[in-house]
């Protein structure tokens, strides 16, 4: 009897240790998951004390590899967005900026620059950015972006579906999207974001001055630029 009791006590003790270990493992995994979500969505936990608009001007080169401007290429106000399809706030701001440009086509122009990140949970979106760039080779960059922003995962099948919907030359486009040159162009754009000291996205510039995107109404800010 004493031996049976001791055996049961031993088993219960080890069961408790196992469940405690398992619970700790689940909590640790949950913490990692939350941290990754915050990073992927670029959520700032502490409100920034930075000014709404930086006083420092930066030189953002606009070369021939850039996608076409959204809006009038000769507009006096230039918005440059460093974008990642994983970044929901980036895409929200992009929609608002383009909505403002639609209403003020002669005042503001927009340039999208690629800055795809990668994470433990969320898929690296480099291929999606390369696919969008190559859609621009057929003058359908913004058509591609419009549909891509409606997707969540942007798998290879999603990218092909978008390309078919906007009437791309599938063979040429897919070959371009997987080419070394497209990979390099996207990587160069990503590197330039780092050169500007980007610690997180969205990274937005208005007339070469970085804006604080933590708490901003981008349309109101652009309206102030238009009124000046």
What is the topological layout?
Elements: H1 2-40, E1 53-57, E2 70-71, E3 77-83, H2 88-103, E4 108-114, H3 126-136, H4 141-148, H5 156-165, H6 170-177, H7 180-195, E5 203-206, E6 209-211, H8 218-227
Parallel strand pairs: 3-4
Antiparallel strand pairs: 1-6, 2-4, 3-5, 5-6
Net shape: globular
**What fraction of residues sit in β-strands?**
5-15%
Classify the helix fraction into a percent range.
40-55%
N-C termini distance: 91 Å
Structural class: alpha+beta
CATH topology of the largest domain: Glutaredoxin
Q: What kind of sheet is the major sheet?
A: 6 strands, mixed
Estimate the mean pLDDT confidence.
81
Please give the count of helices: 8
Q: Which parts are unreliable, with pLDDT below 50 for 5 consecutive residues or more?
A: 38-48
- Number of DSSP-assigned strands: 6
CATH architecture descriptor of the largest domain: 3-Layer(aba) Sandwich
Please write the CATH class name of the largest domain: Alpha Beta
Order of strands, widest sheet: 1-6-5-3-4-2
Radius of gyration, Cα only, in angstroms? Answer: 24 Å
Tell me the name of the CATH homologous superfamily of the largest domain.
Glutaredoxin
